[in-house]
Design brief:
Blueprint (H helix, E strand, L loop, with lengths): L1 H7 L13 E3 L6 H5 L12 E4 L3 H14 L3 E4 L15 E4 L6 E4 L4 E5 L4 H9 L3 E2 L10 H6 L7 H4 L6 E7 L5 E5 L4 H7 L8 E8 L1 E2 L3 E9 L3 H12 L6 E9 L14 E9 L3 H15 L3 E7 L1 H5 L11 E9 L4 H11 L9 E5 L21 E9 L5 H15 L19 H6 L3 H11 L21
Length: about 475
């Protein structure tokens, strides 16, 4: 963690009043590195990158941006698929220096800086056999993932990341520091749980932590000709699955895996990861029965350390690739939906692109729909279509493929989308992302950010301010 901290710890600057970090501008050493984000599609040139060391630095950077009329982008992991982690001609407020993590193992609480990455949080908690339910790529920022809801391997058992969130420290659009929890600024706390980065910059999260150790994973591969049977079985088993079971299937070209014979690599098919997060002996029985039923030509059941599986996708989803995403929810994998999935998968181009079919439900669905701003708790499956490639010459082909997949699946979808899996080109983005919670979110936005200062995200326009850019 100390090595990461040094990235932002590069000396003082007097350019921003009250700012103790360093502001990097065009022409400064390290500017091109400072402006880069995870998705290479977005090659922006901000006027300033402000490496923050403290909450006071964040507040000073916000005040400076308002005084200078600069658009604000906020970056921790920099994983925003549509490029919200950077901006053209504005200021990037970089939080990576705020990556401290404090754990109270007896009280099962953790306090996490707004610049921490999932891998840092996972490692700190696993020292005590604990987890916070979160995402699956360790170089993702805790903040962005959490504020959008937070899906991950533990969600069916423990809920979304926001369901374990107990309080935040936040810098407002006025550059003030406030606390939000169930008793202090409760409407703001409600909105932060699913409403994205629309209301301020969170500099510290307080989470409840949960006991969890190794997982059991049944990994299977089937050629595409068997996809209909596999997905139909996923629907059948998923409809009554215990919370400890998470089923994810990927329609893609098979990537090298330790459990996959080389002759299958590059073959179009269905890779399924069926994970068990409960008692191990019971999991072996459950996964063994599923393995018998799924009858894969290639299959492996393994007990996997939590930290190992949490980093399994890091290389595949590493920085520097070009990425575009479309996604939505479906209530069931019925035959028409499955047929649409298979037809769409047949046209996949890049070796890195895929269609992800991810079971949700479980503990997510048992939270009162009014308790948080996350509006999609009753969905059964999340369909995520991330196109990923390397060569800029393939931009048009890969983007059009993802859009074509989405158009084919749209008749089977609920009409909503997970805000962290959205691009910038959806029609009526607010309603798609926030659904039934939108009007209340707009009222909270009007109270905390009436000028729409924090608009570099899946933006919520303040109530009564439809003309605000």
């Amino acid at each position: 963690m100390d090595e990461i901290l040094e990235v932002g710890d590069v000396g003082g600057s007097t350019d921003i009043r009250g700012f103790a970090g360093r502001a990097v501008a065009p022409g400064d050493a390290g500017y091109d590195e400072a402006r880069a984000i995870w998705n290479a599609m977005h090659d922006k040139r901000p006027a300033l990158v402000a490496y923050c060391r403290s909450t006071d630095d964040v507040a000073a950077a916000v005040r400076h941006a308002r005084e200078q009329g600069l658009e604000i982008a906020v970056r921790a992991g920099g994983h925003s698929l549509p490029g919200h982690s950077t901006c053209e001609g504005g200021i990037v407020i970089d939080l990576r220096g705020l990556n401290s993590i404090e754990v109270d193992p007896e009280g099962r609480r953790t306090w996490v800086g707004g610049g921490a990455l999932l891998g840092e949080l996972d490692a700190a908690l696993q020292e005590h056999g604990l987890v916070v339910p979160a995402g699956v790529v360790s170089h993702t920022g805790v903040a962005g993932l959490t504020l959008g809801g937070g899906v991950g391997r533990q969600m069916r058992r423990l809920g979304l990341t926001i369901d374990s969130l107990r309080a935040v420290e936040l810098v407002t659009a006025e550059g003030e520091v406030v606390r939000a929890d169930a008793d202090t600024n409760p409407d703001l706390f409600w909105a932060l749980r699913g409403g994205g980065g629309n209301f301020g910059i969170v500099t510290e999260f307080e989470f409840e932590a949960h006991a969890m150790g190794d997982l059991l994973v049944l990994a299977t591969f089937h050629p595409i000709e068997e996809a209909e049977r596999v997905l139909a079985l996923a629907q059948e088993i998923g409809a009554t699955a215990p919370d400890e079971l998470l089923w994810t299937s990927f329609l893609r070209r098979a990537q090298p895996q330790v459990w996959l014979p080389d002759e299958w690599v590059g073959t179009l098919g269905v890779v399924s990861l069926i994970e068990w997060s409960g008692e191990l002996e019971e999991g072996r029985r459950v996964l063994g029965e599923i393995a018998d039923r799924v009858a894969a030509p290639v299959a492996s059941i393994a007990q996997v350390p939590f930290l190992m599986i949490q980093t399994a996708g890091d290389e595949l989803f590493g920085p520097g690739k070009r990425s575009y995403v479309k996604a939505g929810y479906v209530d069931a994998l019925d035959r028409p939906a499955i047929e649409a999935l298979i037809e769409a998968a047949a046209a996949v181009g890049s070796e890195f692109s895929q269609i992800e079919v991810l079971a949700v439900g479980g503990a997510i669905a048992r939270v009162d729909p009014d308790a948080t701003a996350f509006p999609h708790r009753d969905a059964a499956w999340l369909i995520n279509v991330p196109a990923s490639w390397v060569d800029a010459a393939e931009d048009e082909r890969e983007i059009e493929w993802a859009r074509r997949v989405y158009r084919a699946l749209e008749p089977h979808m609920t009409g909503g989308a997970y805000v962290n899996f959205m691009g910038d080109d959806e029609e009526d983005r607010e309603a798609t992302a926030y659904g039934a919670t939108l009007e209340r979110l707009r009222r909270v936005k009007a109270e905390w950010d009436p000028d729409n200062v924090f608009r570099r995200n899946q933006n919520i326009v303040p109530a009564g301010a439809e003309g605000v850019a």
